[in-house]
Amino acid sequence: EVQVVESGGGSVQAGGSLRLSCIASGFTFAGTDMGWYRQAPGNDCELVASIGGDVGVYYPQSVKGRFTISQDNAKNMIYLQMNALKPEDTAIYYCAADREALGLVARMRQCQPYRSLEVWGQGTQVTVSS
Fold this sequence. Notes:
Layout: E1 3-7, E2 10-13, E3 18-25, E4 33-39, E5 45-52, E6 56-58, E7 67-72, E8 77-82, E9 91-98, E10 107-108, E11 117-120, E12 124-129
Parallel strand pairs: 2-12
Antiparallel strand pairs: 1-3, 3-8, 4-5, 4-9, 5-6, 5-10, 7-8, 9-11, 9-12
């Protein structure tokens, strides 16, 4: 019932672009904070983009100016446009939702349910080659 599903991952050359999509079911974005996380082998799970209500958007310095998160309330979807991709962007990307709108943690050991951040997708692989 309550879930999110990501799609749009793939393999690209450095400097290329990809657009990730996430569709939510079983809930709406009202009162929900949405975000994109990524995790590469040996690395922490890091927040790369978030959006919530009238709070606005957040990006860490590592992707600022290259990634853009957007939300389509009518379609119950969020997107992540990734431009100027670098090999270090290679990771599994996850869509996640905090249905209590308490905010999204910027980093954790694993991309998995954590406190109020309960709804996670299965992940989509992004590979950027040099």
